[in-house]
Amino acid sequence: MSRTDSTRVTTELDGRGHPVLRFEHHYDHDVEEVWWALTGDADPVPDESVVEAEAPHLLVCTAGDDVIRWDLRPDGDAARVLLTLIVADPTRRPLMAANCHAALAQIGDALDGVPPATTFDQLVEHYARALPAA
After folding, report:
1. Mean pLDDT along residues 27-42
2. Half-sphere exposure in the Cβ direction for 71 (13 Å, CA)
3. Is CATH 3.40.30.10 correct for 4-130?
């Protein structure tokens, strides 16, 4: 099942004091299928600039001053995705966390052929409560 309720999220600060959010998610689809959903049919990071791409395992983008890194790894017949986000403006953490969560959900929904289970506004509210204060 590709639903994002199985997504693990961790937070820390990088060497410059910027928040780093890490989302780890497992999909019951192989790496190539997840890569296709990430780069072919889904738009996980609007207004992105691709910095590095090594299909089907690595995609690094910038969105403004934020850095988004997608690492896709085989996990048997499935895929494990580690999505790392470095947020330049700590006040935007809930919004950016919701964007990442929504992207993971969008990929899973595209792969599973189901409609979205959670609205973006619900995700922003969730992360505003869940993330530690900046």
Report:
1. 86
2. 9
3. no
